[in-house]
Amino acid sequence: MDDSLAVFDIDGVVADVRHRLKYLDRRPKDWERFFAAADRDPVLAEGVELARSYAESHVLVWLTGRPEYLRDLTTAWLRAADLPAELLFMRPANDRRPARDYKARQLGRMKRESAVSVVVDDDPAVVARLRGLGYVVRLADWVPHSSTLQSAQENEGRT
After folding, report:
1. Does some domain include residue 159?
2. Residue 63 has pLDDT above 60, yes or no
């Protein structure tokens, strides 16, 4: 195992959030219920298998736009899915930057400490931004990307 990082998003990569999107399709959006239901996300088998595979040869890091207050819930969910949960980077309270900006900044900090071998994310805007910065990025395309989730990630900086 080398010390390089495999950086994975959670929502849409290993966690299936589709059952929660109904809370964002309404006006006003119900962010509280959207996030409260995160502990019931089904696993996305393809993403979980990929994460486990990378964990065998890399340091697995989670970089999610989920808010920091969901740390305990997210850690428990990752452990229940039999995934490592030690290295979990979450969005600070009141940080509403687009996901592409938030994640690019966090990755810049990470690469000062360790090489980043790959990033896996479901957000096409994040993937485009990170590829433009020279990262090796894999688009998690095993679930169709939702325009509702896209708006939450890029326009509202909420996940």
Report:
1. no
2. yes
